[in-house]
Each structure stands twice: as structure tokens, then as C-alpha cells.
């Protein structure tokens, strides 16, 4: 689940537009998101977004460790990515 698809889902369910468009404040947006998560804790779209966000954070942390160890990220001719 991409962030854009999740934002579209929140806009659909709450009826608010994102704060970057200037029609709603950040506080209203945050309140609506928290309310949606409280009302629908098992929302499949929101669960998919949390799963994706968790995986991205784990990947970033893992890649940071590799970089700190002095490894470089390399792409092979076949398109695979590895660290050397």
C-alpha cells in the first residue's frame, strides 16, 4: 500500500482533503486519521499501509547498518541488488 493510496483512502472516508492543499489544518487531519483508526481498528487498507511502513523502516535501518559497516549497494546486470 503506497502512501498516496492510503491518503486517498483517508480523504474518502473522512471527507477531508490533505493539509498540503490548504483546505484543512494539520490538527483536523490528524484528529480525523486518529478517529478513523479508533473507529475501524481492523481496516484492511490501514493495516496494509502499516505493514508497508514497517517494512520500509526495517529496510532503511538494515541499509544504514550495511553502510556503517562500509558496504556499498550494487546492482548487477541482471537487475539484482546486493551489498559488497
Describe the structure.
The chain has 84 residues and is mostly helical. It has one domain (3-83). Helix content is 61%, strand content 7%. The protein has helices at residues 3-14, 26-39, 44-68; strands at residues 73-75, 81-83. The chain has a two-stranded antiparallel ribbon. The longest helix has 25 residues, at 44-68. It is elongated. The model has no long low-confidence stretch (mean pLDDT 92).
Give the helix tally.
3
- What integer is the average pLDDT? 92
Largest sheet: 2 strands, antiparallel
First-last Cα distance: 30 Å
Strand content: 5-15%
Order of helices and strands: HHHEE
Order of strands in the sheet with the most strands? Answer: 1-2
By helix and strand content, what is the structural category? Answer: mainly alpha
Helicity range: 55-70%
Spatial extent as radius of gyration: 18 Å
Which residues sit in consecutive blocks of at least 5 with pLDDT less than 50?
A: none
What's the domain count? Answer: 1
User: Globular, elongated, flat, extended or rod-shaped: what is the shape?
Assistant: elongated
How many beta-strand runs? 2
Amino acid at each position: 500500500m503506497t502512501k498516496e493510496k492510503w491518503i486517498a483512502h483517508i480523504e474518502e472516508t473522512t471527507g477531508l482533503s490533505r493539509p498540503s492543499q490548504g483546505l484543512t489544518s494539520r490538527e483536523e487531519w490528524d484528529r480525523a486519521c486518529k478517529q478513523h483508526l479508533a473507529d475501524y481498528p481492523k481496516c484492511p487498507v490501514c493495516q496494509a499501509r502499516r505493514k508497508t511502513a514497517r517494512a520500509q523502516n526495517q529496510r532503511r535501518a538494515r541499509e544504514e547498518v550495511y553502510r556503517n559497516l562500509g558496504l556499498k549497494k550494487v546492482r548487477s546486470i541482471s537487475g539484482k541488488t546486493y551489498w559488497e
